[in-house]
Fold this protein.
Amino acid sequence: MTRSQLIAQIRQKRSFLCVGLDTDVALLPECVRHLSNPVVAFNKQIIDATHDLCVAYKPNTAFYESRGVAGWQDLVQTWQSIPENCLSIADAKRGDIGNTSTRYAQAFFEEKSSGMSFDAITVAPYMGSDSVKPFLAFKDKWTIVLALTSNEGSADFQHHGPANSPLFEQVIQKVQTWASPEQLMFVVGATRGEAFTAIRKIAPQHFLLVPGVGAQGGSLADVCRFGITSDCGLLVNASRSIIYASNGADFAERAREEALRMQQEMAVELNKINF
């Protein structure tokens, strides 16, 4: 999915919601646990209930890879279930020396290699350009680079450096020299609302993938106040608050209700910028 196609979907659906498919077998509702493939059945019902309200889906690959071959097969089938008009993001947080990163990219971008062809992948940039550029070499694919996260340990590294140029800002400044906003996004946690102002001064056009709204307590209003652009420029992710809105037989209905609530809030924010 290209940038223009993504913006068109945001405009059409009045939404910049990304649904995180962090599907934990231990948290599946009883009503699907007896099925032959409960994870895929659960994911498909979530997708069917929410695809008109969101513009992206983001499976966290650890929840699938941790279950070996069966989990990998579930990831393939989940990718196959994501509609073409929704951006598919492999939340894999990969990053290694060049030839290894190329193999990671093939695993998630090349259907002939792995059975999957995600539109985007999350990448950790700590090893520098030769760990990120192999992902950028794939035409019409997005690389989403970790920049400023909202976990407690983020302070260990991301805020180090001069007060006027912490490490996360240096990362953004450097990484955006490797690709254009047509191919590159950054991850910025929703609980870092005030930091969006500084980030937008550095990267005014790039899309930002924003986790942390919903169960983690981030404010959609604050994210939009500091981070929204004339093209929207945001993908706000919610995982647990949507997919685990209920642990009963009504889980898909409740997921839709929560996704609809967020979509309606997003429509208000888009109207504010005359989008």
